[in-house]
């Protein structure tokens, strides 16, 4: 099962039905697994790709997350949080492991998702330069600040959900996010 364009056109699965689908996955039902995988693979891939800046590694991370979803579906507890939070937390830890094994932080490719309707060549060049600068400065931040900014702004997670992914209490998450924004602003002003 590859993480390719086939994941992009996934049918919507109502969030309320995800707990029931997880129960079906725990019972070994492949159709329920496929529905959940089709829904969650695209945002997981975007997150992993931003964190790792390596599409092949990001796809491997998503495959591992989906494998764990299949194998550990019975451990999911809808009372403790959303499925997206649980899956992003797994992806976060896998990305962190890979980054630490590399021994270096690579820049995020924030420009990868810049989608303007039909910008002029001058606008496009200007936007690409801004996004490249942002990616460089974002990559220079500590991993936790980068992850907080990515989850909150790029993945559009609510604060409590992003805090759960990073295993922080909400107050600590807001503090981390505030420090990350301040550090990013300071780095951008230095250019």
Automatic annotation (TrEMBL):
<dbReference type="InterPro" id="IPR013324">
    <property type="entry name" value="RNA_pol_sigma_r3/r4-like"/>
</dbReference>
<keyword id="KW-0238">DNA-binding</keyword>
<dbReference type="InterPro" id="IPR013325">
    <property type="entry name" value="RNA_pol_sigma_r2"/>
</dbReference>
<dbReference type="InterPro" id="IPR039425">
    <property type="entry name" value="RNA_pol_sigma-70-like"/>
</dbReference>
<feature type="domain" description="RNA polymerase sigma-70 region 2">
    <location>
        <begin position="36"/>
        <end position="103"/>
    </location>
</feature>
<dbReference type="Pfam" id="PF08281">
    <property type="entry name" value="Sigma70_r4_2"/>
</dbReference>
<keyword id="KW-0805">Transcription regulation</keyword>
<keyword id="KW-0731">Sigma factor</keyword>
<dbReference type="InterPro" id="IPR036388">
    <property type="entry name" value="WH-like_DNA-bd_sf"/>
</dbReference>
<dbReference type="InterPro" id="IPR007627">
    <property type="entry name" value="RNA_pol_sigma70_r2"/>
</dbReference>
<dbReference type="Pfam" id="PF04542">
    <property type="entry name" value="Sigma70_r2"/>
</dbReference>
<feature type="domain" description="RNA polymerase sigma factor 70 region 4 type 2">
    <location>
        <begin position="138"/>
        <end position="184"/>
    </location>
</feature>
<dbReference type="InterPro" id="IPR013249">
    <property type="entry name" value="RNA_pol_sigma70_r4_t2"/>
</dbReference>
<comment type="similarity">
    <text>Belongs to the sigma-70 factor family. ECF subfamily.</text>
</comment>
<dbReference type="InterPro" id="IPR014284">
    <property type="entry name" value="RNA_pol_sigma-70_dom"/>
</dbReference>
<protein>
    <submittedName>
        <fullName>Sigma-70 family RNA polymerase sigma factor</fullName>
    </submittedName>
</protein>
<keyword id="KW-0804">Transcription</keyword>
């Amino acid at each position: 099962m590859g993480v390719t364009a086939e994941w992009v056109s996934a049918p919507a699965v109502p969030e309320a039905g995800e707990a029931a689908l997880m129960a079906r996955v725990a019972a070994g039902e492949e159709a329920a697994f496929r529905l959940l995988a089709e829904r969650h693979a695209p945002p997981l891939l975007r997150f992993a790709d931003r964190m790792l800046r390596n599409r092949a590694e990001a796809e491997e991370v998503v495959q591992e997350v989906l494998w764990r979803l299949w194998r550990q579906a019975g451990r999911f507890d809808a009372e403790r949080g959303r499925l997206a939070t649980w899956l992003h937390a797994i992806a976060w830890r896998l990305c962190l492991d890979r980054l630490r094994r590399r021994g270096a932080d690579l820049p995020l490719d924030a420009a990868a998702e810049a989608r303007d309707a039909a910008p002029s060549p001058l606008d496009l060049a200007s936007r690409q330069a801004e996004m490249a600068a942002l990616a460089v400065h974002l990559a220079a931040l500590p991993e936790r600040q980068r992850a907080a900014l990515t989850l909150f702004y790029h993945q559009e997670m609510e604060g409590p959900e992003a805090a759960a992914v990073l295993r922080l209490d909400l107050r600590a998450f807001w503090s981390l996010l505030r420090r990350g924004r301040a550090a990013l602003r300071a780095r951008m002003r230095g250019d």
